[in-house]
Structure formats: C-alpha cells, structure tokens
Amino acid sequence: MSKDIQSYLLGDKIFQPDYNIKKNNYFIKDLHAYESLCLESKLDPEEFWKKYAIGFLTWHKLFTKVLDESNPPFYKWFSDGELNVSVNCLDVNLTNGNANKVAIIFESDDGQIEKISYRELFVRVCKFANGISKLGYKTGDKCIIYMPMSIEVIIAMQACARLGIIISVVFGGFSSKSLQERITDIDASLIITADYQKRGGKIIPLKDAVDEALSIDTSNKIRNVIVYKRTDKDINWFSSRDIWMFDLESNQDEYIDPVFVNSEHPLFILYTSGSTGKPKGIQHSSAGYLLWAKMTMNWTFNANPTDVFWCTADVGWITGHSYIAYAPLSLGMTQVIFEGIPTYPNSGRFWEMIDSHKVTIFYTAPTAIRSLVKSSDLNKEVHPNNFDLHSLRIIGSVGEPISPETWLWYYTNVGKNKCSLVDTWWQTETGGHMITPIPGVTPLKPGSCSFPLPGIQASVVDELGDEVSPGKGGFLVIKKPWPGMIRNIWNDSERFKNSYFPDELKGYYLAGDGAQIDSDNYFWILGRIDDVLNVSGHRLGTMEIEAALVAHKLVSEAAVVGRPDATTGEAVVAFIVLKGKYPEKHEDLEIAKELRNWVSQEIGPIAKPKDIVFLENLPKTRSGKIVRRLLRLKASGQSITQDVSTVDNISSIEKISISF
Ligand code: PRX
C-alpha cells in the first residue's frame, strides 16, 4: 500500500440540471433530505437498515437481528430472516398490477425484437426451474452460467435463485481455460450455456468452449449441460449429459414453489481480478445484496413505473447482475436487454435504440462513450445530434473514471444538457452503487462521482487509517459494513481478510482505489492502488496475465503493466524475457502474435496485451523483485529521471525507446 497517489486536477464547474424529476416513495427529494438520511443512518444504523429491509423486501420469515458483528469482517445481515430472490423479482409483480407489463424488451444483434411480460417471464422461470429440479438439482448446488445477453440468461439466473442454487456467471468472452478454473473452484455440478452467441455480426461458439473446459479437468462434477439454442448451427452433443433448454422447459408445470433460503445464503459467486495470479470468487448474499441493489436502483436512477431502463453491461459482470438480472425486476421496471455491441451495424446503434424503445434511463461505461465520441467525429451520421434522444431523463456512467471532457460530451450530446448524469462509483465487491449523485438533487462536477449514498460511510485515509485532509490523495475506504457488501472470497477467507480488511486500517473496508475529497466534499477517484488494470471497464489482474505468459514455452519472465489509452482507458503492456536468445527483428512480430493468442486462449481476448516489448532482462531490485514502476514509466512513454542506482539490469530498459 505504498504507491504514491498524485493529486488530481480538480474541475470547478458545477452543473445543476433544471428538470422536473418524477418522484417515487423512496426517492430522495433534495439535498436536505439526502443529508437527513445520511445523519439518520449514522445515528441509528440498525433502525435505518431495518426500515429499508422491511419496506423493500418481501420476507418469508422476518428477521429479528439486523447486523451480526460478532466475527468481523464476516458480517451477517438479517441473519435469522428467510426469503427468496425470485419471489422478490417476479411473484411480487403478479399481484401489484405489473403482471402484463413488459419486463424485458430484447433486441438481438441483428435487430429482432422480442418482448416478455412479467407473467410470461414468471411462467418460463417456473417451467425451467421445474426442469432443473427434475434433473435432481437442489438448494446449495452450484451452477455455472455461460450465456449471451438474452431473455434466457435472466430465466436461468432467476430459476436458480428460485431453487436456491448458487450461480457463477462467466462472461462469454472468457476462454475455456478460465471457464474450467471457475467450474473447478466452485465445484459446479450444472452448466447452463448456449450453442453460440451473436455479437457484432459474428457467431461465436460457447458450447464448444464448455466441452473443452470439461475436457481439461475430467474430474469435474458436472452432470448436465443445458443448452439454449441461439442459432441453427451444429454443435457436438453428448446425449447422456447435454440437454436443450427448450426441451427441458416443455411440458413442465407453470408454477414451482420457491425455496426460501436464509438471508445469508449465497446468491452468486462472481469472479474478479485481484493482485495475485488467481481470480477471486466474490461471494454475495441473498437478502442484503438484493436490498442494496434495489435501494440503489431506486435512489440513483429514481426508478419510476413508467421508466424504460437500459443498462448496456453484460450479465457476466456485476453491473449486469445488480442492474439487469435483479434490481430492475424487483422494482417492476421495463428494461431493454441488448445482445450486440455499440458499433454494429454502425456507431449510431445505441442512439437509434434509445429512440426506438423510448429509453428514459441509460447506463453505460466511459469506454463505450469514448469509442462513440471517436466514431462520431469521423462520421457525423452516427453523431448523437442526429438522433432525438428526448425520452432520456437520466444518463449514467460506471466502471472507470470518466474524464471531464468525456463527461461533458455525454452530458451535452446524449443528455442534451437536460439529463442528470450519474457517475456511479462501486465495485463487484460492493454489490451496488456506493458513491454517486442523486439525479436532479446533487449538483454535478464533471469527473467526480460526488457523495456517498446514505448508509455508506466512505472516507479517504492514509496508511494508518487516519483521514487525510481535503485535496490530498489517499486510500478509499468504507468505515462501516453495509448490507450489499461482499461476504467472503469463495474458498479463501484469509485472502478475504487480508485484501479487504488489512489490520492497519482499523477494520475499514479497503476498496483498492486511490481517491481524494475536495473542499466541497466531492469524491474524486484516482484509479487502482493495486496491480489491477481497468481496460475498457474490465478489471484485469497484471499478475494473472503474467502467470499466463510465463506458462508459454518460449517465455522465461514476464512483467505486465498498464499505460493510458485514449479509447480503452488503460492498455496492457507486457515486457517479456524469452528463453534462449533475444528475438531477431523479423521474429519478434511473429512471437508477439503467438503470445497474444496464447493469452487470449488462457484468459480471454479481453486480456490480450496491446503492446509486447522484448527485453534481455527485467529491471529488478537487489532482492530480485521486478521494479514495475520503471516499466510503467517506460510503457507510458516517459523518461526515467529517478535514482536507479539500486536497480539491477537497468540498462536493458534504458536502451529501448517505446513509442505507441
Ligand atoms: O477502480 C474502480 C473502477 O472499477 C473498479 C471496480 O471494478 P469492477 O469490480 O469490475 O466493477 C465495475 C462495475 C461496478 C473500481 O475499484 N470504477 C468503477 N466505477 C468507477 C470506477 N472508477 C472511477 N469512477 C467510477 N464511477
């Protein structure tokens, strides 16, 4: 935790959108109400959370205890309560007037539209759950979901929740090797996948990757692979194991009793990168997680019954869990789910879809916005100014810092200067938004995620956990537990404690981000303080990529760092020492290509190094530690001006000049 955190150049312009925000019961109406709620949550946290847990969730057995702090940091919330997440997302909508309301508007890669009402979704979830149940799966079993964006992936997630089956959704862009590691780590007995996925006009195999993953570790416990048929293309079929999703659903009863689980029952495990070579299985609860996802959906997006919500994330990431698979359904919203990519068939796709589906709340990532800024500079026809977009009232950003320039472009061209722009800071581990503006309430500073939500005691501290003064950088921490927080790292409680609750930080949750608070109390996120990169909003561990690279037969040593990139935010740069001799000029391109493909195969295409630099040696301390800060400087094209007298092999990087 010794990385220097640079001061950030603070923007000073404040935007206060003047628009008539629609109100709902739980909406925070003004800054005064926001401050009172913050105070209320500090003065009597138990009462605060209890009020929301009762008001927001449907319980089978109401809890008597709000927070169990007997074994920190293994906090338990509402721990003697029982509920079912799918009841809270589906059954509740059958009796509150939403039964015939459209739950999901699905738009496929090639523009086909399919709509499903709450009642229809409920029936399909029940039929599918009946099918899974008849295959012998039950509460506590583990299921891997490896599917494209579709109505069917929501059905799969909700059906598992109905039965208390613990899921781990694996992003379709991960390789069979990554898939295998996750299957093994959670000891899964069921996989739900699709034959193929369609993205950007391409057809990408998914079932093949599953077959391959299962052949890597033949001691796996998988009994069935359920396959959603997305295309007419053939796939390999193992009749004793594989079953089509439509076959499993057909002739099943349209109702199945939900399994009521304890509040702390793991709803899902979602893998994310950390600072070691092995991804962490972030374990979330049922009640606390759903409560926080729903509360934040309400506060941050001011969710109203007439809204059409569109979150462009993939369900393979936490954003797609909280703000696609669970919270919008729990609030009876209509949402758009999109199979494709923002640039296909052209870069006007998002804007066209907002207009055609009359989207009112749009939630995307800075990386998508940056790429669309670039394409609309090149081709005026796809510029958002050519689209109406007047249905929008709130636009959101997530996953990485949004620069003030990108913020302004989004606000002006997409929000047409009238929408609230919510820059939401949160993480896989936090379950839901943590620091974010309240639309129409919080005055906005471009580039700042503004203030913590009520109930969230965020702060910026030094190495000893003491608060730093305004304008100074430090570690972003959350001082008190909250219901949506990570419960554990699957199979690794020690790592959970060490990574998130280090002894020296007074028991605070350490987010892994640097931040600073300005003199108006606005939070500014400065980026990761660990060896984690953020490439196109995807979290990648440098150690994970290094481990993949050194597993290649030609590689002796590898050091991976990030460098700034105008489109992807950060780009992966790999410094490689080959076994044997330094490559000749003509060889290096070939080897670099092979190594890129190798990483793609080992982890997934998202982890491919953008640049590969061959060195004779890596710069190291006398004790043999790679000096990554020098590599970071080199990778970002800066010269090395600091004292390097204690660094071995320094000549090997001094003599190379890198221009990207
Ligand atoms: O560094 C922060 C960045 O993304 C990290 C969390 O990544 P992940 O767990 O994959 O979740 C992404 C979606 C919630 C954080 O540690 N990050 C996320 N949101 C923001 C952000 N950085 C700056 N501003 C944000 N709004």
Number of helices: 18
Rg (CA only): 24 Å
Overall structural class, as computed from helix and strand content, comes to alpha/beta
**Global morphology:** globular
The top-level CATH class of the largest domain is: Alpha Beta
- How many separate domains? 2
Q: What oligomerization state is this entry in? A: single chain
Walk me through what this model shows.
The protein is an alpha/beta fold and 660 residues long. The protein folds into 2 domains: 31-341 and 425-457, Rossmann fold (3-Layer(aba) Sandwich); 536-655, GMP Synthetase, Chain A, domain 3. Helix content is 30%, strand content 22%. The chain has 18 helices and 30 strands. A 7-stranded mixed β-sheet has the order 5-4-17-16-18-19-20, sandwiched between helices. Helix 5 links the parallel strand 6 and strand 7 (166-169). The chain starts with 30 loop residues before the first helix and ends in a 6-residue tail after the last helix. Residues 272, 318-319, 398-401, 423-428, 449, 511-513, 525, 528, 534, 539 line the site of adenosine-5'-monophosphate-propyl ester. Keywords: Acetylation, ATP-binding, Ligase, Nucleotide-binding. Pfam families: ACAS_N, AMP-binding, AMP-binding_C. InterPro entries: Ac_CoA_lig (IPR011904), ACAS_N (IPR032387), AMP-bd_C (IPR025110), AMP-bd_C_sf (IPR045851), AMP-binding_CS (IPR020845), AMP-dep_synth/lig_dom (IPR000873), ANL_N_sf (IPR042099). GO terms for molecular function: acetate-CoA ligase activity; AMP binding; ATP binding. Residues 97-482 form the AMP-dependent synthetase/ligase domain.
